[in-house]
Predict the 3D structure of the following.
Amino acid sequence: MRTIKHSRQRESILTFLLNRKDHPTADTLYAGIREEYPNISLGTVYRNLNLLVELGEIQKLTCGDGKDHFDADTSPHYHFVCQTCGCVSDLPLPPVDNLDEQAQACTDCHIDSHTLIFYGTCVDCLANPMAHPSDT
């Protein structure tokens, strides 16, 4: 087992992420962390985010927008992505207890876990469609 040296920058990244519910990207985290650590590099932020994911302290979400989003909530839960403005949020839907087993019954492959992301339009975009015009 490898020993991980304590890092104030890593701790700051984790604290910053714990205080957010919007599932920020590395760039957003970098901009926020720079207020406390003006000399921190984007590479340092990426390395620490990847280490925190590897340690199981945060989740990395790939939502289809070409950017990784990060979530400090590692409990089983689902996400919603607005296809208009791109916001990512937790979906207050209890996880389906036996979904892995149901999927396992459909394949000879081995199912370890799953992620589930719902896509649609958030309430802010529904309320003000002119603020986020559709690409279609």
User: Anything to note?
Assistant: The mean pLDDT is 90. The two ends are 51 Å apart (CA to CA).
